[in-house]
Amino acid sequence: MTGKCKHTDQARRRLLQGTAVVAAAGLAPWSLRATAAGERAMMKRAIPATGETVPVVGLGTSDEFSVRGEEELGALAEVLRQFRALGGTLVDTAPAYGNAEEVIGRLLTDLGFADDLFIATKVRTHGAQAGIAQMERSEALLGKSPLDLLQVHSLVDVDTQLENLRRRQDQGRVRYIGITHSRTSAFDQLERLMKREKLDFVQLNYSFLEPAAEVRLLPLAADRDIAVMVNRPYLNGSLFRRVKGRELPPWTVDFDCQSWAQLSLKYILANEAVTCVIPATSNPKHLVDNMGAGTGALPDPSALERIRALADTL
Question: In this predicted structure, what is the pLDDT of residue 70?
Answer without folding.
Answer: 81
